[in-house]
Design goal:
The complex is a heterodimer of chains A (129) and B (93). Chain A is mainly α and 129 residues long. Chain A has 5 helices and no strands. In chain A, α1 runs antiparallel to α3. The mean pLDDT of chain B is 90. In chain B, α1 packs antiparallel against α2 and α2 packs antiparallel against α3. Chain B has 3 helices and no strands. Chain B has 93 residues and is mostly helical. The chains are: A mainly alpha (129), B mainly alpha (93).
Chain lengths: 129, 93
């Protein structure tokens, strides 16, 4: 906090605005996670935090430390690149697993795949017994 | 004056991120199925990472950055392992 005392006003203001934007977007995302009805709706909400929330926060951090140490501090880009690469992978894997489980359980919420003929016959056999 | 606004914004940011962590932990507890719990754990560690970055701005120390990077990596590995477990029933085949 002592370090911030002799920083220029515009840097403090910009950092504060970016911090508030980041935190409010993350909060909105998790409120969506809490309040939306089905799992497939809920997976969309927290991505607000993982994209824009992290983006604004890292931008604020880069700006603050660059002005504080009067040299470009760019190592936050590592987190940005890493999260940009990993978030879609995580969500695709998770939603595919959930879809597989729902189809396996015969849920009416998700569209069923049209099974190929042979497995359709097997299905009839199982149902017949 | 700008310093006061900056301090207030930092505190408000920390409060909002703590609320975000609270929201996702509520979903972690009530989440009807396993996939809801994994998705909320994902949101939880992202909020924790943002909170650590806020700490680093508040203290003016670079040490928190490495912690945030480690949380991001371990969180990704954890979520992928759990999603794979849901899909297959085992993590390493």
């Amino acid at each position: 906090m002592n370090a911030a005392a002799n920083m220029p006003g515009w840097a403090l203001f910009l950092t504060a605005v970016l911090l508030l934007l980041s935190a409010s977007l993350t909060l909105i995302g998790t409120i969506g996670l809490l309040r939306l009805q089905t799992f497939y709706e809920r997976t969309h909400a927290p991505t607000l935090g993982t994209t824009l929330g992290i983006g604004f926060m890292l931008f604020a951090s880069m700006l603050y430390f660059s002005v504080l140490q009067s040299r470009p501090v760019l190592h936050e880009l590592l987190i940005a690149v890493f999260m940009t690469v990993t978030t879609p992978i995580t969500l695709v894997l998770l939603v595919r697993a959930a879809l597989y489980r729902d189809r396996h359980a015969g849920s009416s919420e998700v569209p069923q795949t049209t099974p190929p003929k042979s497995s359709l016959l097997e299905q009839e056999d199982i149902d017949g017994n | 004056m700008m310093l006061g606004f900056f301090t207030a914004a930092l505190t408000l940011t920390q409060i909002m991120l703590a609320l975000a962590m609270a929201c996702s932990s509520v979903r972690l507890f009530i989440g009807p199925r396993a996939q809801d719990r994994i998705a909320s754990m994902d949101a939880f560690y992202v909020s924790a990472m943002l909170l650590l970055l806020t700490f680093s701005i508040r203290t003016g120390s670079n040490l928190y950055f490495e912690v945030a990077l480690v949380i991001a990596m371990l969180g990704f590995v954890g979520t992928v392992a759990l999603a794979k477990f849901l899909m297959r029933g085992e993590v390493i085949e």
